[in-house]
């Protein structure tokens, strides 16, 4: 009797935690997406995406088109706002191969670990977590959570949300004071975006070591610069390595670096960490 109960429990656990039929359905979606995916988010097969992720992709594409038209209208030679690199993996240079790993299923949601490889410039491997949701009876990719060391941002949705952060464009030079006067006290001037942004809406945030204040971070579209905002000041940092940024001035300057999926903002002069944030 005890043996029958034990076997029944094992079978039930297997059905709920590792249903092979569900795994096959999920793997088909992931394969269908990544076999065709070549890097640019504008070309993804949106039929394989969730409604919310597909909507973000559409909005980002529309924003790119709008930016290009606005610059063309004023005959500007500035580069239009655009997302560069692959946002469906940690590595902006994309991947050359992948292997599907462990799958976790919880009702109508699933999370799949996928190991990616890029051998274009040496051999580089990393893992990302693909999140899926069941909509109208079909599995759809809902997000990609970055696990790689070189990732900038938390996930695909995070990158898209940051790109779509509202910006009030200013045609002439402006400082934070003018930005606040023209757009409201909730806005701050961004040197990277060349406009007024609502800092509190930025998805990438760090917390002070004493847990009393927040620093918000935004990256340029080409990821060559980062801008950090605190309650008292802001800095523009230049990219120094794959996951490290620094201000030009050492005196009063700061660094921003990522180690073990944790970002640290610190003082250049003594290396002291003043803000940190886990990417999970």
UniProtKB/TrEMBL annotation:
Domain DUF3828 intervals: 28-148
Keyword Signal: yes
Highest taxon above the source species: Bacteria
Residues annotated as signal peptide: 1-22
InterPro entries assigned: DUF3828
Keyword match Signal: yes
Gene3D superfamilies: 3.10.450.50
Keyword list, A-Z: Signal
Pfam short name (any one): DUF3828
Protein name (Swiss-Prot/TrEMBL): DUF3828 domain-containing protein
Organism: Pedobacter cryoconitis
Lineage summary: Bacteria, Pseudomonadati, Bacteroidota, Sphingobacteriia, Sphingobacteriales
